[in-house]
Amino acid sequence: MILKSLVLSCVAALGLAGGTALAGQTYVNGIDPNYPPFAFLNEKLEPSGFDVDSMNWIAQKMGFVVKHQAMDWDGIIPSLLAKKIDMICSGMSISPERRERVNFSQPYWKIRKYLLIRQDSSLTASELLSGGKTLGVQSGTNEAEYLRERAGKNGWNYSLKYYDAAYLAIQDLLNNRLDGAAMDSAPAEEAIHKGKKAVKIVGEFAEQDDFGVAVRKEDAALLEIINKGYALLMQDPYWEELKIKYFSRGQ
């Protein structure tokens, strides 16, 4: 118990020391406004969600100001590189391809990759992936990239239809314009919960991904502060409160 208290005290001291250097500075976080419960606009059109609240807590703890800017997901990394925003804390999967362009924080969440079908459909995951079906997927996502690259390697046969947001793919799925949809577990579970099970999960198409916060490669100091902030947050009771608030479960 003494050792644990000592470790937490050291982490807190490091965090507060690092945060002092950023006191008063403002950073802009780019978010996907259509990715509940991680990031979305509430009824007042204000940025909300698990990632938004997490970064707000970290900013306050580490002594900087954060503003959240909603934008199209497929252009969010170019916006970061063009210095229109300073970070991406919005359910972004860490991938080798993205690591070539940006640096990521330590992972803070694991996400699964689901295949969805209509509740009245009898299609299997194998049929969706190998039966010449049409799958809806959000453009600019790790899922879209994975399905494009793996089709030939895995002997899969499908057509991909791209959408600006996962919920748009679900709408087309329900309107019989798609055979299935591929997406992260977050929007899939949100659709099942809010749609009263109008769609269902039929399988998974990839390994779990880790979520991390993306920053420009030259922003090493900011990345260090974000990592320290998450270390503090995950040891704070507020972390469990956030998980209950947005997921009604732990992880």
Describe this entry's structure for a reader.
Helix 6 (142-154) links the parallel strand 10 and strand 11. The strands form 5 sheets. Strands 11-10-12-9-13 form a 5-stranded mixed sheet, with helices on both faces. A 3-stranded parallel sheet has the order 5-1-6. Mean pLDDT is 90; it is low at 1-20. Helix content is 42%, strand content 24%. The protein contains 10 helices and 15 strands. The chain has 251 residues and is an alpha/beta fold. The chain is globular. The protein folds into 2 domains: 2-110 and 210-247, 3-Layer(aba) Sandwich (D-Maltodextrin-Binding Protein, domain 2), CATH 3.40.190; 113-207, D-Maltodextrin-Binding Protein, domain 2.
Q: What is the average per-residue confidence, as pLDDT, rounded to a whole number? A: 90
Proper CATH architecture of the largest domain: 3-Layer(aba) Sandwich
**Percent range for β-strand residues:** 15-25%
CATH superfamily annotation of the largest domain: Periplasmic binding protein-like II
Please report the number of helical segments: 10
Helix content: 40-55%
Tell me the number of structural domains. 2
Q: For this structure, what is the CATH class of the largest domain?
A: Alpha Beta
Biggest sheet details: 5 strands, mixed
Poorly predicted sequence stretches spanning 5 or more consecutive residues? 1-20
For the biggest β-sheet, the strand order reads 11-10-12-9-13
Rounded to an integer, what's the Rg over CA atoms? 19 Å
Helix-strand makeup class: alpha/beta
Kindly report how far apart the N and C termini lie.
24 Å
Order of helices and strands: HEEEEHEHEHEEEHEHEHEHEEEHH
Q: What is the CATH T-level topology of the largest domain?
A: D-Maltodextrin-Binding Protein, domain 2
Number of extended strands:
15
Overall morphology = globular
